[in-house]
C-alpha cells in the first residue's frame, strides 16, 4: 500500500507516519474496534463516494452494538471522510474509518477505555485482482464456519474478522482465491469479506441476512439494480449443492465490487466463464459508481 499524506484522527489531520497508538490499546488485545470499508470513484462531476452516509450509519450502529461511545455524528464523519480524500488529493480510492478502544482499561471490561476514531484513505485496485474481475475467481468452501450469533455478525467489529482471516488463509494456502463460509447449520453464509449471489435457471439467489452474513451495502445495491432490470431476486437459504449446480455465481462487496466466481471446490460454475447476469451486474455497478446511471444518484456523495 502506498501511504497518503494525512490521516484524520479524532478531528485532526495527522501526517501518515504520526497516526500511531500505544501497544496497550484495548483494541489490540481484545479486538474492540468497529470499522467500515468504503470506495470513492472518479466521475465526470468529480470524486463521488459510494453510499458514504449509509456506511457511516453502519459504523455508528456497529459502535452501538458494542457500546462504544462514538462522539462523531454521521454528518461529521461524512464530512471528515470527504476532507481526508481532499487533503490527500485522491480522485478515487478506499476509505477506512475505524473506531476503537485505546488506553484506560486493561481487563475485559472495556469501561474507561478511551474511544478513538480514525479515517484512513488510500489508492486500492481490485481486491480479488484484475484477472479475477475479468475472468472470475476460484473459491473453496471453507472448513471454518462463520462466527455464530455469539457476536454480532451484522456489526463490522475488528475482533470477529479473525474468523474470516482463518477462512481466507486456508483458501489461499490451498491455492484458491477466496473462501465461502458455511454457518453453524451448514448453509452458505458468505465469502470471507463479500456477499454471494448465485444464478440458476434465470433466477438470482442470495442467502438471507438471517443466516449470519453481513447486510452488505453492495449486496443491497445489486439486488435493487437487478430488480430495476426485471430480475427476480430470491433471498433463500442455500446449501453446497446450490453452488455446484449454479449456472453463475458472483461476490459483491465494497472491496470486491462485483467479482465473478468461475469455480467452486474445483468444479466449474456453468461453463467456467462469467455468465450474462454476472456481466450485467458488473456493468450496472460500474455505470452506477462512475456516474453514468440515471437511477440511484443519491448513492453518490460528491467530495
Ligand atoms: N461480508 C463481509 C464479511 C464483509 O466484510 C463485507 C465487506 N464490508 C461484505 C460482506 C460486503 O459488504 P459491503 O458491500 O457493505 O462492503
General description of the model:
By secondary structure, this protein is an alpha+beta fold. It has two domains: 6-122, 2-Layer Sandwich (D-amino Acid Aminotransferase, Chain A, domain 1), CATH 3.30.470; 130-289, D-amino Acid Aminotransferase, Chain A, domain 2, CATH 3.20.10.10. It is 27% helix and 28% strand. Strands 8, 9, 10, 11, 12, 13, 14, 15 and 16 form a nine-stranded mixed β-sheet that branches. 4'-deoxy-4'-aminopyridoxal-5'-phosphate binds next to helix 6 and strand 14.
* Class of secondary structure makeup: alpha+beta
Radius of gyration from the CA trace? 19 Å
Number of strands: 17
What's the end-to-end separation, in Å? 22 Å
Strand content: 25-35%
CATH architecture of the largest domain: Alpha-Beta Barrel
Main sheet summary: 9 strands, mixed
Uncertain runs: none
Mean pLDDT: 96
Form type = globular
CATH homologous superfamily title of the largest domain: D-amino Acid Aminotransferase, subunit A, domain 2
Tell me the count of domains: 2
What ions, cofactors and ligands are bound?
A: 4'-deoxy-4'-aminopyridoxal-5'-phosphate
CATH class of the largest domain: Alpha Beta
What order do the helices and strands follow? Answer: EEHEEEHHEEHEHEEEEHEHEEEHE
Query: Could you say what the CATH topology of the largest domain is called?
Result: D-amino Acid Aminotransferase, Chain A, domain 2
The portion of residues assigned to helices is 25-40%
Amino acid at each position: 500500500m502506498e501511504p497518503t499524506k494525512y490521516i484524520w484522527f479524532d478531528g485532526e489531520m495527522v501526517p501518515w507516519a504520526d497516526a500511531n497508538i500505544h501497544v496497550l490499546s484495548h483494541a489490540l488485545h481484545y479486538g474492540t474496534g468497529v470499522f467500515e470499508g468504503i470506495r470513492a470513484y472518479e466521475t465526470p462531476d468529480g470524486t463521488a463516494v459510494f453510499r458514504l452516509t449509509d456506511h457511516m450509519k453502519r459504523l455508528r450502529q456497529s459502535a452501538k452494538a458494542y457500546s462504544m461511545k462514538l462522539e462523531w455524528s454521521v454528518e461529521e464523519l461524512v464530512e471528515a471522510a470527504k476532507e481526508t480524500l481532499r487533503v490527500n488529493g485522491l480522485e478515487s480510492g478506499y476509505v477506512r474509518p475505524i473506531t476503537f478502544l485505546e488506553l484506560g482499561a486493561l481487563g475485559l471490561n472495556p469501561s474507561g477505555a478511551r474511544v478513538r476514531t480514525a479515517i484512513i484513505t488510500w489508492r486500492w485496485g481490485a481486491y480479488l485482482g484484475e484477472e479475477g474481475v475479468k475472468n472470475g475467481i476460484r473459491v473453496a468452501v471453507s472448513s471454518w464456519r462463520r462466527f455464530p450469533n455469539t457476536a454480532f455478525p451484522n456489526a463490522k467489529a475488528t475482533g470477529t474478522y479473525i474468523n474470516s482471516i482463518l477462512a481466507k488463509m486456508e483458501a489461499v494456502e490451498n491455492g484458491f482465491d477466496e473462501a465461502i463460509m458455511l454457518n453453524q447449520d451448514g448453509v452458505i453464509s458468505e465469502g470471507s469479506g463479500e456477499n454471494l449471489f448465485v444464478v440458476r435457471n434465470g433466477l438470482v439467489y442470495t442467502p438471507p441476512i438471517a443466516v449470519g452474513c453481513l447486510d452488505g451495502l453492495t449486496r443491497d445495491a445489486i439486488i435493487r439494480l437487478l430488480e430495476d432490470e426485471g430480475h427476480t431476486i430470491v433471498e433463500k437459504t442455500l446449501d453446497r449443492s446450490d453452488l455446484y449446480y449454479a449456472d453463475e455465481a458472483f461476490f459483491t462487496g465494497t472491496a470486491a465490487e462485483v467479482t465473478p466466481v468461475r469455480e467452486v471446490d474445483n468444479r466449474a460454475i456453468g461453463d467456467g466463464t462469467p455468465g450474462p447476469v454476472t456481466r450485467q451486474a458488473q456493468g450496472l455497478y460500474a455505470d452506477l459508481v462512475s456516474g453514468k446511471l440515471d437511477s440511484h444518484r443519491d448513492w453518490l456523495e460528491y467530495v
